[in-house]
Amino acid sequence: MIEIFQNIREIYDFTAPCGELLPFVEFFSESSAEKCGRYFSRGHESVTMFESWTPTFYINLTGGYMIDVGNKRFVVDNEQDILILRNGTVTRHNQPGDQIFTVKFYPGGLERVLGLNQVSMTDRVISLNQILPQDLLRQIKRAASFDERVTAIEVFLLRSMKQTKTDHYSSIVNKAIGEYTASGMQLNTSEIAERLFITSKSISRYFNRVVGVAPKSYFSTLRARTALTAMVADRDNFKPWTYGYYDPAHFYKDVFRFTGRKISQVY
Fold first, then answer.
1. Fold of 8-163
2. Looking at the domain 168-261, which fold is it?
3. Which of 68, 93, 136, 204: CA 20 to 30 A from 56?
4. What is the pLDDT of residues 14-66, one digit of tens each?
5. Chain centroid to CA 8
């Protein structure tokens, strides 16, 4: 199954974070063993996800699995929990009965909440034992429900965030992404820098420092992801220029660059 083109959300339960974490955590989710079993029986033995530059925790509640990151395959055993950046295409190979608790951060969110810069995480699979306390991981695994797991991680993240100093670079990057989104993805990097009263060179340095990629590349990824999601949801009423594309050909070219697939191959 391929992210965006197909509904990979059908195997997950989702919830948004509390208000204080909203700018930094995109969502908490948990795959359902029952839903994964149905999904697997229909021949969907893997989930392919495209780049997003969003640090993501995968906390294993059942068996092991394999995951492809940075063109390498990693085996994640039963007791292993991992952190990946999602700076490129990631494929997770499912098992019947999978149950995985996920925490997905926005770009730079992990640094604001836990003081961890994501730049060094490119193409890596990092053990969460190096990031989270063992007691917290045990508490999450032993919790009786998805809601209990969310509460446990939220309490920890809120406490950690209060002890982490606000980073000037992360703050500027967050504001820049907000300006780009609010403009309907019409602004270029220079125009965003001007709105933030900084130079183009500065905003480029900030993005490379916080996210790990130049602002132009990140904005291109965000636009392609957002526009493609909108097209899949309502193709009849989709207009690519709403998302800053010149015409349909410009959009199709960007989708191919982003996903490696032509829309005609999928529809």
1. Jelly Rolls (2.60.120)
2. Arc Repressor Mutant, subunit A (1.10.10)
3. 204
4. 999 999 999 999 999 998 767 666 666 665 678 899 999 999 999 999 888 99
5. 14
